[in-house]
Amino acid sequence: MTTEFIFDFRSTGSTGSDVLGGKGFGLAKMTQIGIPVPPGFIVSTDACKTYYEQGGTLSDDFWEAFDLQLAVLESETEKQFGGSDDPLLVSVRSGAPISMPGMMDTILNIGLNDDAVEALAASSGNRHFAFDSYRRLVQMYGEVVEKIDKHAFDKVLQLALRGENAASPIELSERGLEELTANFKRTFTKEVGKPFPQDPYEQVHRCVMAVFESWHGKRAQAYRENEGIPNTLGTAVNVQTMVFGNLGENSGTGVCFTRNPSTGRKELYGEFLQSAQGEDVVAGIRTPEPVTEMARIFPTAYNDLLKHTEALEQYNRDMQDIEFTIQQGELFVLQTRNGKRTAQAAVKIAVDMVEEGLISEDEAIMRVDPADLTHLLLPQLPENHGMDIVATGLGASPGAAVGFIALDADIAEQRAQKGEHVILVRPETSPDDIHGFIAAQGILTAKGGLTSHAAVVARGMGKPCITGCEGLDVDLDARHISIFGVIYDEGTLITIDGTSGSVIIGEPDLVEASNEGELDVLLGWADSKRRLKVMANADTPVDARNAKRFGAEGIGLCRTEHMFFGEDRLPKMQTMILANNVEIRAEALEELLPIQTEDFYEIFKELGDSPVIIRLLDPPLHEFLPDKSEAASVEIARRIEELSETNPMLGMRGCRLGLVYPEIYEMQVRAIADASTKVHEESGVWPHAQIMLPMVGFISEMIQLRKNVQAILDERTVPDVPIGMMIELPRTCVVAEEMTQAADFFSFGTNDLTQTTLGFSRDDAENTFMGKYTEDGILLDNPFETLDVSGVGKLINIAVDSVESGGHHMSFGACGEHGGDPASIEFFHAAGLDYVSCSPFRIPIARLAAAQAALSV
Amino acid sequence: MTTEFIFDFRSTGSTGSDVLGGKGFGLAKMTQIGIPVPPGFIVSTDACKTYYEQGGTLSDDFWEAFDLQLAVLESETEKQFGGSDDPLLVSVRSGAPISMPGMMDTILNIGLNDDAVEALAASSGNRHFAFDSYRRLVQMYGEVVEKIDKHAFDKVLQLALRGENAASPIELSERGLEELTANFKRTFTKEVGKPFPQDPYEQVHRCVMAVFESWHGKRAQAYRENEGIPNTLGTAVNVQTMVFGNLGENSGTGVCFTRNPSTGRKELYGEFLQSAQGEDVVAGIRTPEPVTEMARIFPTAYNDLLKHTEALEQYNRDMQDIEFTIQQGELFVLQTRNGKRTAQAAVKIAVDMVEEGLISEDEAIMRVDPADLTHLLLPQLPENHGMDIVATGLGASPGAAVGFIALDADIAEQRAQKGEHVILVRPETSPDDIHGFIAAQGILTAKGGLTSHAAVVARGMGKPCITGCEGLDVDLDARHISIFGVIYDEGTLITIDGTSGSVIIGEPDLVEASNEGELDVLLGWADSKRRLKVMANADTPVDARNAKRFGAEGIGLCRTEHMFFGEDRLPKMQTMILANNVEIRAEALEELLPIQTEDFYEIFKELGDSPVIIRLLDPPLHEFLPDKSEAASVEIARRIEELSETNPMLGMRGCRLGLVYPEIYEMQVRAIADASTKVHEESGVWPHAQIMLPMVGFISEMIQLRKNVQAILDERTVPDVPIGMMIELPRTCVVAEEMTQAADFFSFGTNDLTQTTLGFSRDDAENTFMGKYTEDGILLDNPFETLDVSGVGKLINIAVDSVESGGHHMSFGACGEHGGDPASIEFFHAAGLDYVSCSPFRIPIARLAAAQAALSV
Fold this sequence. Notes:
Chain A is an alpha/beta fold. Chain A contains 34 helices and 31 strands. The first copy, chain A, has an eight-stranded mixed sheet. In chain A, strands 24-25-26-27-28-29-30-31 form an eight-stranded parallel β-barrel, surrounded by seven helices. In chain A, β16 (about 420-425), α17 and β17 (about 440-445) form a beta-alpha-beta unit. In chain A, α19 (about 520-530) packs across α34 (about 845-855) and α25 crosses α26 (about 700-715). The model of chain A has no long low-confidence stretch (mean pLDDT about 90).
């Protein structure tokens, strides 16, 4: 029975990683395809489970089988465990079915005792190495098996180092190491109450059980709880022959990638150190050499490495990150895994591997994380920029930008008009600052979260942005900022990196986004796989141009409110709002009409005959008015007061505006029709305009609005303009089927739908309880970034399903932040939506994510 | 074939009102049970449909049958149509299957012509009467059949009146009436191009067709559209012998009720006029006499009336409103219908009729409008109070109250403590005014709607309240109010009637609510029929006492926020909120603990072992802080600023508070446990306390909160306290099944659920677009008063159904405004809820409405 608990690396049959553990499974597979792996065997997860079932013991039968397998290892390596002539040393490592890096214990050099250490010294010809190995065993065994406090050994070590004025144990003399080993053993005896075990079998047995014990250790438990890994899986244990890279000049150790993880180029990439163990590479005391140098120093081992790494990449069908050791000229591979890579490398490797016939297009699409694509589109702060990071905030919109500090939107605009680059730096931003956003290269705010106004608008424009910057204080009176007390005047040159959130004073060299065409190839494949259309949120000609450039199939959300913040419009808009009768309002709207017509005209020209879905005015009117304290007259102050609301998010906005002041929508519809006509007159092509109504909750609203809109369209000669609506209220989700009577299409406004479904005001929630909620794990994701599938998603399902089961064929879209979020896109695909709409710079993300969603089903 | 279109009143068989029309059906039934109805017959709705199908004509066969039926009428009445000796006159009236009062046409006195009028003058011995009848026919026929503009006749009439200096046609001389008739005929000829038809058959045929035409008249169409009556129903036409109450002293006309419609007492109640027609009673020129006076004047007719009214009540099984005419001593009943009555009468009549064996208990329950019950519980302003109404506002909470004007809560409290009655008069109210509400007899505000703070709190307390009072201006600096410019100082005695919205200066006599025990009987029956439990929203011992008094089965919602506004608490609450560390907060909470314990102790004592569901603190903390401008220090102002939110309704409130500041809920739970223990020690009875958590949206919130609450309870010896939650977010509705893991019961908070589902902030919506929405018919009901069944109701269904289909047996309640609204209660019953909770003064409404809901299914 117990033999089923033990598997030689060479013969695991069809046993899977649930039994062998991930690490053991990998080592066995490598062994079996002819990679030189140090021999060893696996104690399975079943043994672990049995160990716990039997209250922390394993049967004599088991240990008999275990010792028998050690004997197999002895004969395979032609060494003897605990032997007095070239002794066999083994490592004992955990290996759970699901990787839990660093969570469980490892013991090396098992098999050393007072006799074997002398034999090792003799066989290796390296007494320093032998005692260094022994003192390591005593310490690791003491800590892991006997739970001796690390400090007990540290104190002894510090004394030894001081004695020889050494910085690390490696610098100690042979004599010093011998003494240190003796002292470690003394510490062991003192702490445990009995001496360090000289029986190598006792050593290895206790180590196996210690690893099993570590499965229920505090750290491992917490990790599993956090990652959702079941406690019942248990861990396997790998018992493997030790190899040493520190046995002199003909030994060494290294790490390599089968392709360049930074660029993706197909070349062996990595480093190695002669006469060193793995941890020496990490310690950074000696500088490793490029792995290609091995060709000169260890030509045979290097040729083996080329051969074996190629085999491993072919076998695993992905770029590999490989650890190896050369022991006295002989190459051993210790580990292989899929390598981490930059976004650029991910794209190139995926595309190259398809061309090499290694993977399919579908696999290539699944290999790239859509969220990483943003990085490919913007200038980057290189890793080694060599300058001080003076502050760090939230990376709210990726990419790096350089410019002079401008403390308000007007200054930003003025300097930009002179051709200067500026960074808009504000305590926080508001819709009033919109011209500053347009003028600036990037935005930095002291307050606000990842979905604050600044963050959302900057991402929408594809401009780098940092929000919630710790230590930053913006003094608008003194016209300077201070960062942790250091003052920088307005006009100082500053660099922000919206990817990492870093703020730098001065101008480092930035790296241009490089994209050797593979991204287009990959996105082309993605386009052929996805069902979801990808549209853009765009309200300016520049946005529209970017949208087309990144592959949008049209504009899914053209907001019209930002159009009224320009210097030439805002006063007219304010006159319109402050009007206390229809006539004055109509007059102001008459003046806005040509400007609005021009807005639409420019956008239509960019889009050709691709659809442009225009949402009529949505926000509460008071957003267009100055703060009450800045009102020019008592009359205006009174009107501002009148328009102010307790909960503006749930107040007089969206189509409610359009029903109470029909003149506003009337003007907008006229502008759409006039702009369409103008484009048609010039180009012969009718733009594909569609009108979308915001915040509709009742069919009666939609019927009335539709009547109003259609009446204006009927006065003109434009071809049929579809009239659709946003679904951004829970009520609208449950009455969606009824809405088909009056709407030509639907678009989920998931920002507002999230606010109302969860009862979270975005700004308020992020500034109050959401921090605590995330900390305490009450919320796992920010629901304004990744759609709340069980709540908001359920309502979306209800809406779509009710419309479909009613037999209606309606187009459903999703616009808002979630339209560019991969996890949300996966849901939208599954829910049966027809398109997503997101900011232009997120279009590539959405294209790839939509393809992945289609392939995942 | 055509005979099927005509039904004699005496023989309609089993034909229903869909064919006979409502009026005809009633006349036929009366005829058939022996009530003296003037003879006549019905042209059915099928004839009307055929008329339209045939493009506005009816076949010769039809008219032959029609004329034959007229002949039957002639023989029955022993008169001759168009005859020169005692001529038969008929009326032609519409009668649709569904009543459309005043929407269609009537023509009287048909059959008069130049010969017949002389015959009528001779047979009646009243030439004045005969020509008055003839001139009426000419005008009615002209207007209805020939569509002559009313003004054409009016001009002629005015000339005639001026000629004799008469105020109305009745005052004209015989000669004058003859001339007027001649002139009307001349006008007719001029307008129509041919003279007034002398053939009585032509008259009556044209009149029947004119009534059919009026079915598709503009007014009738609009009415049907509004009421949702199908266009296809068609109308019937009633042809009935004319009787006249104006044929001298032995004739008359009157209206009576079979019971007193004001008190419900069983007595004939009504009025009559000797020698008069129906319209003379309405005109009000002569004062009618009590119907009982008929016993003296027309003893035979009076005895007949007693007999027939009794028969009609028995037959219709409800109190009847009856029109009758006495023609030369002979009684004719012209119409009967169920009579309108006051709430008090409705209750008494329903209960009496059960005792008389006339109706069942179920029917009695269905006969009373629950909404009317409120009027029975409060002092009333009598109809004839004889004082000036100086202003009118919205009747926000019914009942009348008298008191001295108090312009703020402090003054109200001071005067009340001296034993004076006060009316709190404010521009609008806020939670700060709560002690003023408690002190005042009633509340009057210049602003606010039917669900403003003042309205909600006043209804909750059962205190009369008027909001949105037009013309009222409250000058807090000058310490006076002005009503349409007239100034009244603080301290002026004022009366408000929250039922009608009337404001009176001074003190009229009020009428105490009288309830002779019938209400208790009726509610007792209701209690035995309903499935929904009725609980109360109550947060004070006074509320709790009222709740019991009106029959609540427990407290379904004990809010805890109002408890912190008292003079002794608010400063401590503020200290707690302003605390910048846990220690200071804990200290302030420690001081609040005994006060809060005492609150619960007093309420528990009132409730015995009935359940008390306590909701832990819900509102945003800044509601407890003064306005920023009133902050005592810069520090406090800063904290107020910090706590202010853009959309507080969707911000840091409800259980979010309880998770971020666990100390607050901890204190509240301790208070509940301590108060329970104290009551138990004193009485041996454990109160049935339950803890309810507000604004829960995520199961993770509920798990954490439950853990926190249970930990405090576990430290004490109280018996199990159920821990439940509000469902007041759309998300919570769609994840309700998951919530059963951590909640013991659910209560729908329909106020907040309405706000989030519709995206309507109550205050903002009512002050901005809701007025326009109601005006334009976009909203039919205020969704904060009557539940939005298709939206909010759908989400409630989703929640309840998912929990039930998951196999969980959970208690569901509804609290908030809707818990006391009959239409909403009907929905809650149908949705399968277990209880509703409403303000104490609405408990009787809810008990009755719940019974009606149960009986309606």
